[in-house]
Amino acid sequence: MKALNMRFSRLAFAGALGVLVMLPAHADDPGSARDPVSRQANIGAATGLAVGALAAGPVGAIVGLGAGALIGDHYHHQQQAKQALQADLQASEQQRAQLDADLAQLHGSLAQAQARDQELDQSLQHTDEVGLDVSFRTDDDSITAQAMSPLLKLGALIASLPQAQVRVAGYADPRGSDTYNDELSLRRAENVAAVLVCAGVARERIFLEAHGKTESIAAGGDLDAYALDRHVSVRLQLAQPEQVARRD
Prior knowledge:
Layout: H1 2-21, H2 39-125, E1 130-135, H3 145-159, E2 165-170, H4 178-198, E3 206-210, H5 223-229, E4 231-237
Parallel strand pairs: 2-3
Antiparallel strand pairs: 1-4, 2-4
Helix pairs in contact: 1-2, 3-4
C-alpha cells in the first residue's frame, strides 16, 4: 500500500509538471472565452496537486488540488484589483495634469484681463475726457444707424467704470428761435442718454446739458458749418462734474 501511495505521488507530481508545461498561452487573457479559468488558478491547482500528492498521497493530492486552485484564483483576483487600481491612479494623474493646465490657462487669462484694466486705468488717468460726438440732421433729434454702434460701445465702457460719469450736451445750428433750439438740443441730448442707459449706464450717472444755438460757430448761410453745430457731445469724466441745467 505504501508503495502504491509512493507511486501515485510520483505520478501526481509528474502530472502536475505536465499541466504546468502545457498550460494554454491564452490563459493569460482574463477575457478569453476559450479558457475562463485564470492562469494563476491553473498554476495553483497543479502546484497543490503535486505538493499534496508528495505530502499525503491521493487524499493530499485531492485536497492540494482544491486548495491550490482557490489560492491561485485569489491571487489572480488580487492582481486584477491591483491593475484596476493602477489604471484608476493613472487616470487620476492625467485628470490632475489637465486640471493644472486649465488652471494655468485661467490664471493667464486673468492676468491678461488685469493688465488690460490697468492699461485702461492709466489711459483714463492721463486724459481728462473720453467721448464722442453724435451728429444730427436739420431739425431732427433721431439718432442715425451709423452713430448707434459707437454710442453703444462707449456706453458699455462707461458702465464698466463705476467711478466714471458722463456729460451729454446738446447743440443746434443758429437757424430758428432760441427757445426752439434749446428744446431741440435738449431732445437730442435725452435721446443720446437713452441709448447710454440701454448700454448699461445708470441714469443718475448721466448729466444733461442743452446749449441750443448759443455756441454756434457757423457763419450765416454756411450749410457745411451748420452741420457741425447740430450735434451732441458725449464726454466720460472721472471727476464729479457739475450738472448744468439747460438755460431758461
